Amino acid sequence: xxxxxIIVESPAKANTIKKFLGGSTKVLASMxxxxxxxxxxxxxxxxxxxxxxxINIRGKGDLIKSLKKEAKNAKKVxxxxxPDREGEAIAWHLAHILDIPEESVCRVTFNEITKETxxxxxxxxxxxxxxxxxxxxxxxxxDRIVGYKISPILWKxxxxxxxxGRVQSVAVKLIVDRETEIEEFKPEEYWNMxxxxxxEKSNKTFKAKFYGKNGKKIELHTKEEVxxxxxxxxNSKFIVDDIKKSQxxxxxxxxxxxxxxxxxxxxxIGFTLKKTMSVxxxxxxxxxxxxxxxxxxxxxxxxxxxxxxxxxxxxxxEHIINEYGENYYENRYYKxxxxxxxxxxxxxxxxxxxxPEKIKESLTNDQYKLYxxxxxxFIASQMSxxxxxxxxxxxxxNNYIFKANGQTLKFxxxxxxxxxxxxxxxxxxxxNIPELEVKQEVINKKIETKQSFTEPPPRYTEASLxxxxxxxxxxxxxxxxxxxxxxxxxxxxEKEQKKLQPTELGKIxxxxxxxxxxxxxxxxxxxxxxxxxxxIAEGRAEWKKIIEDFYEPFAIILEKAEKDLEHVEIKDxxxxxxxxxxxxxxxxxxxxxxxxxxxxxxxxxxxAKPIVExxxxxxxxxxxxxxxxxxxxxxxxxxxxxxxxxxxxxxxNKPKVGEVWEPEKKDExxxxxxxxxxxxxxxxxxxxxxxxxxxx
Length: 696
Hints:
By secondary structure, the chain is of the alpha+beta class. The strands form eight sheets. The chain has a six-stranded antiparallel beta barrel with strand order 8-9-15-14-11-16. It has a four-stranded antiparallel beta sheet with strand order 19-20-21-22, with no helix packed on it. Strands 23-24-25-26 form a four-stranded antiparallel beta sheet, with helices on one face. The longest helix has 28 residues, at 130-157.
């Protein structure tokens, strides 16, 4: 008989925790949720105060039986699922299944999976927090009502298999609205003017940008305006009118929250949201580190707080002073956003002495990249500001003003270790300005003029969409990744070179929802619902009352939409590729593995072919077109369209114009990986073969 039984969510987490607890303690995994609403029906009793009808999840019968048996044999059961609302709900369902009384002190949580934290948490259990479980129930029930009531309408009016969701529909609307902005955007002309100036004593040149006239800023929109100014300053002297010298500080970014980690991992190391969360989960649950055993390397990765513990702050201080010197340390506190739950710390390393380089050999390449990002961001967040010496010079010529700005990095501070990608990529028009004096003349060597046009707003990337959702209060840390994954899988949006754009289907579904279910795709309304979930979690609101207030007007809109909506036909996108069997222009269809071309004459003509993506760089071997293809593991590679008939070019790396290609060893293995996967015989075919053998 076990003294203690601890139930967590995943086997990896169970293995890590088991190593920290001796004696007869057993640690088992629930493998996520064990009870949920049924998939076959709504599962919410609308007539009886929105009571959810939970059932045991299919396929978990043996696991539940095993957990019950172990719980019965244990002196004490602890429920140690993840430290968030979802984890609290799983603990609540486990308590129900295992007949653990509601008042039982059985709940433990680990913000970090270290020996000290695990042992301390086991000694200080608490009751299951009913407010948190109610907040999760409210989200689950409301999302189920929205999904199961609107989706059948989409099936009837558009096509089968579609779905609507409270957060996903808002995300699609943001992408569709951005696409509309881009399509309707009218570029406007503008001009910039630069003077290339020479300081004669030092013989140094620098650039000054046109600003305005008589102290007022002037924007240049036409060539005529530019030519008029050029005419007025043609033979004028350029005199230094004003010099301002000062210092500027750049402060480090706070340690990661879920969304900032997702954004930065996307920008800096090219991870999708899904990949970021998967790798982070592994780092949190435990990695086998040489000399340390299995340890959780980061704190819990679903958080919207920038708070860090005093203990972590102390270790960061020691590390920074020892590694960089006292002048590089600054004790910093970061304010979390107003709507953040602040239940957990920011994402940080659990052991400061385990630097990324020290444990590199114990990590996979992906784990190393993300761990290094988290580690460096955290340490940098407690470092001194970077300091710049700045200079701003006004230069007059016939009452027209040109400005020259320059800055020199005086002290790197936190930038020694880490600079947020957006900050690093800011356009910098500053230049090295020589020593100047007021009223000094500088020589105009050349005036440059540049015509430009305003550009439309950029399409969202996964990172910028998460940022937009967070800023608007849509969803929470745990919902960003599954939301974007869902709308990609439903083909409401597609990804082209990391940019998200709506499909025709996405536009149609968004139009239908916008015109008939205004609140469902309303940003403010969706954010308000999130706030109400927070109120439930804090014990300030009753969850069934919030569902009731939502459902009454929703039911009226639902009934009206059923009557008013007409069937919507989705037209296939026509390609510029003719069918080589019947001559019709082929259309773009979607299959299990993405887009493909099909003849619109189906079923008379069943011709279909893959869509081949090419790049604008010719094959470095024979000059033909280079195609982009994917391996079985979905990794891109580049291959000549004539391979293998008359050209052997194939490479992991995108070719460059004029490069000479020589096959590398890693490219030689590509031929094998790029081969189509052998078809596995289906279970049905195996059964047929077995039956036939028996008969024989």
